[in-house]
Design a protein that fits this description.
heterodimer; A: about 110 residues; mainly alpha; Arc Repressor Mutant, subunit A; two-stranded antiparallel sheet
Chain lengths: ~110, ~525
């Protein structure tokens, strides 16, 4: 499978995750969000950027608690919880936001 | 999030036996594993050319290796006792999800090639050739079985569909037809140490974060140690406990319990996973390879005891198979069960009145308990029959004032599966997961409506994740599922202000728990 962004083709797996994280550019996230009828706001980008930074350091998406804590620190305590993240990414911050960020899908009993 | 492109079953007062709808789930099948994931596990990458021959060879091998497998294939008398016992049949109406029909998918091929009447008069005994269509049907319907073994409780011959389902998956893997979810994950365990693919540094960072959180919350420095040598206990827990909610709240609870017990403990980056998906795919070799990591970690860290966290099938592997897979564990302290469940550990402390608890911390909830299938029907806890039902409930009741059981036909040994076990906890199987959850959701909904239940507790990472996902499809809230040790965590009062010391030469954990001044590095 693949998605088209600005005339460029990006290869994805059967669930729509980028095959190669290094291919990622912001337009990929925009295009994926558009398919889900979602408009990416600054709030979404805060999360996507954090995911990418964390992945760069640890080669894995952050745990939910790591993510909510980072969001809480940055954007205020009332936003440091999963409810806020689900309000931004209704299919789940772990999976939907990771996909937009070009990260591989988290696997396991989650 | 609960947007479905299939029909979500309507919850009724009773779990009704549906009218059958032939083939209604024939379209359901999980993604196939990439060649790399199959070969990582020792299987062919893709469907081999002589796959029929190879599949039959494997079936022959399995019936010789596992006497039970052949007995199950031979002994069914089609009495029908199992037909309405499977949550997937009840939720989907597909007659091939009746346990007997699921078994027959394999049985009819077994008859054709391994029984006299089947070889000569196949039409008379329902025997069929192994064709590509049959193989495809296997792939679909053996991935609509969570290997929960509820049907086997009702079978007068004790036929265990789970074992047939495991054999079917093993046969498929052996000819290069693997399931992406399971095989990718097992490969990650071999490469990185856990199902998530969480590398050591990320794990260390996550645990450090938990220590900060617990300190901020309680003012007490509860530790969540990693790869600490010479401690009493190695905790083996599902990696979801590091990653997901409400799992992590349970992990926080285990740490507080160890802290209050005054025992030293550690997690291992090598064995940073309790789950053993080798069982789901019926592969003894992979199950053994996954299990051996635990032995190696225990030896390297020099621990005296192994305790398992809240993970259903891991407890089955640990309780029933670990000793033969990775034993003998003669290097561990024989005064404690090898291995021990975290609920047993906490229960022992409760018996000794060794924990200070404030039950009112959980007064905002009325709890019920979901018996996880593998714990309920394949293991035990404590030293009495039924301990696997009693002990988790005793722990919950010790830390909560409000507790109600769901209908007796849906708990204990007759518990309904969460709908996501046995390697089905993947988005590509969401339809069967949601539909298969219907019986449990019905029982839960009844105690919500009639008894004011607000939350359901569980001791399995798969159950917790499955409910987090499916509860919203049934109009409930994702955070209505909680970890048992999350409830313990809420109620426990931290009376010990410093970290328990690593025992060094002091013998046994009891010494450390009675007086921490005895302990020396």
């Amino acid at each position: 499978m693949a998605i088209e962004v600005n005339g460029k083709t990006f290869e994805t797996d059967e669930e729509g995750y980028l095959t190669n994280i290094n291919d990622w550019e912001p337009g990929v996230a925009e295009a994926m969000a558009k398919e889900d009828d979602l408009e990416l706001t600054d709030e979404h980008w805060e999360i996507i950027n954090f995911l990418r930074e964390y992945y760069e350091e640890y080669q894995i998406a952050p745990a939910v608690r790591v993510l909510t804590k980072a969001v809480g620190k940055k954007l205020g305590k009332e936003k440091g919880n999963s409810k806020y993240l689900y309000s931004l990414f209704p299919y789940g911050p772990g999976k939907q936001a990771c996909r937009y960020a070009g990260l591989p899908k988290p696997t396991g009993c989650i | 999030m609960a947007k479905a492109d299939f029909e979500v079953p309507e919850l009724k007062e009773y779990i009704e036996v549906p009218e059958i709808v032939e083939g209604t789930m024939a379209h359901s099948k999980p993604f196939y594993a990439a060649p790399q994931h199959n070969t990582d596990l020792g299987f062919p990458g893709e469907l081999v050319d002589n796959w029929q021959e190879k599949a039959l060879e494997k079936m022959d091998d399995l019936r010789k290796r596992y006497r039970s497998f052949q007995v199950y294939l031979d002994s069914c008398v089609k009495c029908g006792a199992c037909t309405d016992k499977c949550h997937y049949f009840l939720g989907t109406s597909d007659p091939k999800n009746m346990p007997v029909a699921r078994q027959d998918l394999l049985r009819k091929v077994y008859r054709r090639y391994f029984t006299l009447p089947g070889k000569y008069f196949p039409n008379l005994v329902g025997a069929v050739d192994l064709t590509k269509d049959v193989l495809d049907e296997w792939y679909s319907y053996y991935h609509q079985c969570s290997q929960c073994r509820r049907c086997s409780v009702f079978c007068p011959y004790g036929i265990d569909t789970a074992e047939i389902s495991m054999a079917a998956r093993e046969i498929m893997d052996s000819v290069g037809v693997g399931q992406k979810y399971c095989n990718e994950i097992i490969a990650k365990v071999f490469k990185i140490g856990n199902n998530l693919g969480l590398p050591g540094p990320a794990l260390a960072d996550t645990l450090e974060g938990l220590e900060e959180d617990v300190f901020d919350d309680t003012g007490v420095a509860v530790k969540y140690p990693l790869d600490k040598k010479g401690v009493d206990i190695l905790l083996i827990t599902p990696s979801a406990d590091f990653f997901a909610e409400p799992h992590v709240d349970g992990l926080i609870g285990y740490g507080k319990v160890f802290h209050e017990a005054g025992v030293s403990w550690t997690l291992s980056s090598k064995a940073s996973e309790a789950a053993n998906f080798g069982m789901f795919i019926g592969s003894y070799e992979n199950m053994r390879r996954v299990s051996l990591r635990i032995r190696e970690a225990a030896l390297e860290l020099g621990v005296k005891r192994i305790v398992f966290g809240e993970c259903g099938h891991a407890w089955r592997v640990a309780y029933s198979f670990l000793n033969t897979l990775a034993g003998p564990f003669d290097f561990l302290d024989p005064n404690y069960p090898v291995p021990q469940h975290i609920c047993e550990f906490t229960y022992d402390l409760l018996q000794k009145n060794a924990l200070t608890l404030d039950k009112s911390e959980n007064d905002d909830m009325t709890l019920t308990f979901h018996d996880s299938c593998n714990v309920a029907r394949a293991t035990r806890m404590g030293d009495k029959p039924g301990g696997q039902f009693e002990i988790p409930r005793a722990v919950i009741k010790a830390v909560c004032n409000n507790y109600v059981d769901m209908h007796h036909e849906t708990i204990g040994e007759k518990t309904f599966c969460c709908g996501g076990g046995g390697g089905l906890l993947t988005d590509d199987l969401m339809e069967v997961r949601v539909k298969g959850a219907m019986p449990r959701m019905t029982a839960l909904n009844n105690v919500i409506q009639d008894e004011g239940v607000t939350h359901m507790a569980a001791i399995c990472a798969i159950c917790k994740s499955q409910f987090t996902k499916v509860l919203p499809y049934y109009g409930m809230d994702m955070d209505q599922i909680v970890s048992v040790h999350q409830l313990v965590s809420n109620a426990i009062q931290l009376t010990r202000k410093t970290e328990p010391e690593t025992p060094g030469e002091v013998e046994g954990a009891e010494a450390a728990s009675e007086t921490d001044t005895d302990a020396e590095e």
